[in-house]
């Protein structure tokens, strides 16, 4: 779905156009003009019912609906504003299904739009409440992988999407193929989310290959493990070495022995124990799917819940505050009926999220959390 016809027309005319049912393309005519309020309240609200109709039809065709996967960017108007509107509407209609998002955050150095910090902060405010699992991506980290690891001189969005699609496929492969140790979106959430608001994950994939290239050397489980835990493999600009892993999950695909996977996971936790919180023992979940991706003998997908993800929110938050202090560009949003209060709430919600990550990063085994009664007494 989109609020302008151009992009979807090119998808329909492209090589993958035939995959989608023609009536599943839903688009408006006016565009959101990089304005979150247009996507969430005005233009998007007019289109949302036709999108929900398509969603309903697809859901009714399912035998056992696991959940929804939403791919959107948080910097523009449609992906951020209308994307979060769609998520909240689907949450109302299917409250017990999993809501998984692949969210492209604004990049630290490369900015497409001046108002990215506004759009992203307003979106995070929604995602904290309405999504179950958010895979955090950003284009700059993906460009870096293309330059440094894949040695592509001039990466296109197609190359970036190839990396994202490998991860998306890895996250859901256990639903689609038989395996020895099965996992699904719900099991993933249960194992990765210690506290309901902290559901923003880093993702990685190994072995990294460019489009159309063949992997001739077959990798071993230790090599895959080393690659997938490498900070350079992460698809967002946050360094896991600056924080600690609350939890993590590894999905191996191909002819892999579960014993070897378990040994490697234990090994990584023992060798880098300072990067894991000690108050969640055995905090790495592993699953094994028998069917490897096309063109590879073996692969692994990494999903980590690390406190260092706060770097993403901090960066966006600082840019947000700098503009919001001066009320720059605010009239575009208030003109669509938004209130300044909503900006203040979104800002403080995101700052709270950063503080929560920081709090659990510093927590140790000996910390005894205060009981509710004691806490009130202390505050009094």
Rg: 21 Å
Please state the structural category: alpha/beta
CATH architecture field of the domain at 99-111 and 128-313:
2-Layer Sandwich
- By CATH reckoning, the class of the domain at 99-111 and 128-313 would read Alpha Beta
Helix content: 40-55%
Largest sheet: 8 strands, mixed
- Count of alpha/pi helices: 14
Q: Would you tell me the overall average pLDDT?
A: 91
Unreliable residue runs:
372-380
Arrangement of strands in the largest sheet:
1-2-3-5-8-6-7-4
Give the total of beta strands: 8
N-to-C series of helices and strands: HHHEHEHEHHEHEHEHEEHHHH
Query: End-to-end distance, in Å?
Result: 51 Å
CATH superfamily assignment of the domain at 99-111 and 128-313? Tubulin/FtsZ, C-terminal domain
> What is the third-level CATH name, the topology of the domain at 99-111 and 128-313?
60s Ribosomal Protein L30, Chain: A
Shape: globular
Strand content: 5-15%
Describe this entry's structure for a reader:
The longest helix is centred in the last third of the chain and has 23 residues, at 340-362. The protein has a domain at 99-111 and 128-313: Tubulin/FtsZ, C-terminal domain (60s Ribosomal Protein L30, Chain: A, 2-Layer Sandwich), CATH 3.30.1330.20. It is globular. Mean pLDDT is 91; it is low at 372-380. Helix 10 (258-271) links the parallel strand 6 and strand 7 (284-289). It has helices spanning 5-13, 36-40, 43-60, 78-93, 116-130, 139-149, 157-176, 185-192, 221-228, 258-271, 310-325, 330-334, 340-362, 372-379, and strands at residues 67-73, 98-105, 133-138, 179-181, 200-206, 245-254, 284-289, 298-306. It has 14 helices and 8 strands.
